[in-house]
Amino acid sequence: MEAIPPAPPRILIVDDDDSVRDVISVLLREEGYNCVVANGAEMALDLAGEEETPLVISDMKMPGKDGLWLLENLRERLPDTSVIMLTGYGDTESAVDCLRRGAVDYLLKPPKLTDLIRAIERALAKRRIEMARKRYQKKLERKVRDRTAELRSALRDIANTYQNTLLALVAALDAREHETSDHSQRVVSYTSAIAQRMGIQGKELEEIGRGALLHDIGKIGVPDAVLLKPGKLTPDEWLEMRKHPDIGFQMIQAIPFLDTPASIVLSHQERWDGAGYPRNLQRHEIHIGARIFAVADTLDAMTSDRPYRKGTTFTNAIQEIKRCANTQFDPEVVRAFLDIGEEGLIRIKQEMATKKLQLPQAEQDAHDAEAELARLTDLDDDVDAAVPGHSASDEDEPKSAVVRSVAGNKG
């Protein structure tokens, strides 16, 4: 089977002189080109827009809109169309100006056939190279977009994996301390609310949230006899307990994405007046995330029930935190905390409790859906078995994808 030769390129010839226009078109048709003619610039612009026109050969000077006007409009509307300008003797300066404005070549009128053919071949060759370059660029841009989307998806997966790992670590600590009140998650919510009230957003807000979540991770290194002791700690036991900020810092400070949270973990027991531990930092020496956490942690500790006492009211807790501004707490953080208001703080706690109640229901819904799918699958198998000559393929049973991440911590 013979290959079909490509269609000849469409060339638009523009000249107000009928004889020049007709002679050029006849000569180019004999050379195998598909020629279209126009007697003015406006007509030429319309014709060029009707069908792909790789090349326009236009006279420089025409009544009404001239060749320069046509060139500028073609550059704007049809940038892939090449333009060769025809000019008379003594007007070469204008022709050179056209080259600056985007024309690919110019010829003196009347052009010799050999010069015209060479100019056309150069123009079309240059256009083919430019079109190939644009196609390559678009293909490259598309690949970059695809790879960028894949990278973003991978980064989201990594971020989710990191977050789930942190939640698992905190859940492990909660289990060790027999803590079931979701303390760590509530503290993260309180901390984030205060930070947002202070205008903290984006990556900084996420890092402060991680620091709040991991604040007591160092308690993994505290002996059970101290950590789980039901009674009052001795001075030596307090020395052991006070090591947990430094232990937590040493555990996570080498992990790049936990660099800032590690600073919060190390500083979360410091006080505004310098009476905290382990480094006796004061004021703005303490990381802003740790200063915010200190208020959030105190609120949750005071308003949560403990085996040895009932939690106090939010009103009492708010008043106590307000009283300790400028001593235990950063006064700027306390102002942001007070701006949230008692109703806003109570709402945060209620929302956390609602999420906790929804998890068993979500798990039950997943089990119900899984059972229904299994029932329908069994029904399909029964129907297939009843059809002669039909063999059902073995398929893996659907598996539940419910994951629970309830992370709490001892205050």
From TrEMBL:
Origin: domain of life: Bacteria
Residue ranges annotated for the Response regulatory domain, each copy included: 10-124
Gene3D superfamilies xrefs: 3.40.50.2300, Hypothetical protein af1432
Region of interest called Disordered, as start-end residue ranges on this chain: 377-411
A Pfam family the protein falls into: Response_reg
UniProt modified residues of type 4-aspartylphosphate: 59
InterPro entries: CheY-like_superfamily, Cyclic_di-GMP/3'3'-cGAMP_PDE, HD/PDEase_dom, HD_GYP_dom, Sig_transdc_resp-reg_receiver
Keywords per UniProt: Phosphoprotein, Transcription, Transcription regulation, Two-component regulatory system
Domain HD-GYP: 158-353
GO biological process per UniProt: phosphorelay signal transduction system
KW Phosphoprotein (keyword) present: yes
UniProt keyword Phosphoprotein, yes or no: yes
CDD domains: HDc (cd00077)
Identification of the protein by name: Response regulator
